[in-house]
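Usage

Read records sequentially. Each one opens with the input sequence:
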Amino acid sequence: MSTTRTLAVVSAGLGRPSSTRLLADRLAGAAADALRAEHGADVVIEPVELRDHAHAMVDATLTGFPSGDFRAAVETVTGADGLVAVTPVFNASYSGLFKTFFDVLDRGALDGTPALIGATGGTERHSLALDFAVRPLLAYLRANVVPTAVYAASADWGSGEDALGERVARAGAELAALVAGRPAPARDDPYENPVPFEDLLGSAGRAG
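and closes with the structure output:
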């Protein structure tokens, strides 16, 4: 019997469509292909476009907790078996949208979560932002980040050589291996073991 694994795909692109979302989808697809082919798992991919939650993220930083659709997005990420996180590079670092999302997560929410990081930018000169900014951020949150990070410059999309595709495949396989080697998290059903009605009555009587 195959195991179902969930991959949350966080994309901080500002446009629609965006190269950031395109890279995120390719990375998630590579990881899903490797999980199916090499580990016999069923895979569910859950995309989270931060652009859609920009205002809610600011509200969450002010109130201290997410709400509505943004809360559902946070729960998707924190409950996933693996994470793909991709940001555009602005001023040699991750975007403010990307950082704000991870700022509102509860401490420990990503402990041990296998993660694959990626970034997009105009030139290859910004590729070091992955190792000097994005990787430390996810490491601080105690995610288990795979060795291969994938940066895609504008030239990578139009190149006849598929160097980008090779990096994507390698990173996806690394994420798949970590996800497959991690025990599937227990997803408790609050209705599986209900409190007996007589116990509820007894508690109510004692309270009264």
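Summary fields computed downstream for this record:
- The radius of gyration is 20 Å.
- Residues 19-39 form the longest helix (21 residues).
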